UniProtKB/TrEMBL annotation:
Residues 16-186 form the Diphosphomevalonate decarboxylase-like N-terminal domain. Catalyzes the ATP dependent decarboxylation of (R)-5-diphosphomevalonate to form isopentenyl diphosphate (IPP). Functions in the mevalonate (MVA) pathway leading to isopentenyl diphosphate (IPP), a key precursor for the biosynthesis of isoprenoids and sterol synthesis. Belongs to the diphosphomevalonate decarboxylase family. GO terms for biological process: cholesterol biosynthetic process; isopentenyl diphosphate biosynthetic process, mevalonate pathway. The gene is mvda. It catalyses: (R)-5-diphosphomevalonate + ATP = isopentenyl diphosphate + ADP + phosphate + CO2. Pathway: Steroid biosynthesis; cholesterol biosynthesis. This is Diphosphomevalonate decarboxylase. The keyword Lipid metabolism applies.
Amino acid sequence: MPENDKQGLSVVTCTAPVNIAVIKYWGKRDEDLILPINSSLSVTLHQDQLKTTTTVACSRNFQQDRIWLNGKEEDINNPRLQSCLQEIRRFSRKRRNTGDSTSDASSVSHKVHICSVNNFPTAAGLASSASGYACLVYTLSQLFGVESEQLSAVARQGSGSACRSLYGGFVQWKLGTQLDGKDSLAEQVESESYWPELRVLILVVSAEQKSVGSTSGMHTSVETSQLLKYRADVVVPSRMEEMIRVIRERDFPAFGELTMKDSNQFHAICLDTYPPIFYLNNMSHRIISLVHRYNQYYGETRVAYTFDAGPNAVIYTLQDHLPEFVQVVRHFFPPEVNGEEFVKGLTVCSADLSEELKRDINMEPTPKGIRYIISTKVKH
């Protein structure tokens, strides 16, 4: 464990990625243990473009646990934060008591100071809680000498989808059947190198915090939406099997169609919730329309959208179709001429659009409708 002997200070810094679900998690069967009512499957995005960086310092001189998120001190007594801290310390003590730990025996009783920073908008529907809690739990585990196989269950208790951010590539979070949740864990379906042609665009229409948080939104949906129960019991089990199959076959049209259908069903559940929840806005709807018109022009699914609990679109496509689709977005959502660069992240080659394609899509351009695009790919 890294240590500065002068101050008795131990410091560890780690990073964790964002994951974007293609089969959505929405609703808990146990709110304390954060057990889902359905399995889910996600794609882990490259950390060069989207990540959380967390530094944890531990010292006998610290008077209390404290946490700062993006430079602002937050309440350390948040129940989910406390749950993660307590579980990691419990596992560390357990290892120490069996003589199996390499960590300093006294450090587990010391207080910690946690600093966490996202390089993307927090709470804007870009899965910041997933990368945040995955990073927190992994960094604490490195500090206190806790084994990695125990982390999925701990991260899940911070934020359900955080368990999926502990792995790269394509990851499923299994529903599980045990009451204690010990079998509701994340596991990798395929590695990040399995489908190298797959590319990801995040179309940021808003960086503002959503009006209804995921936790309260899920709770209301579970209480009031009949569609949610049907989805969990009838739709998702077969969808999970099909999604794993099309990923393994690298069948993009099937992957894209299933991804869009599942996103649409998630937002249908939000509308079926009472009172209804609106995560999508007019720009989201215009992006959905653009994607379908683009695919219709080619007579196949070349591009797919998915939306989490926010208005920002995540677009999946293959490398071959990426330059043209980015140019389509530029054309129908013209950016500010002298604003910051419109496409951030991985470089996208320029492409020419045919007049026929622009005419067939037949949409009025919406200037400044999309603030910027993050270009990324699958990774850990």
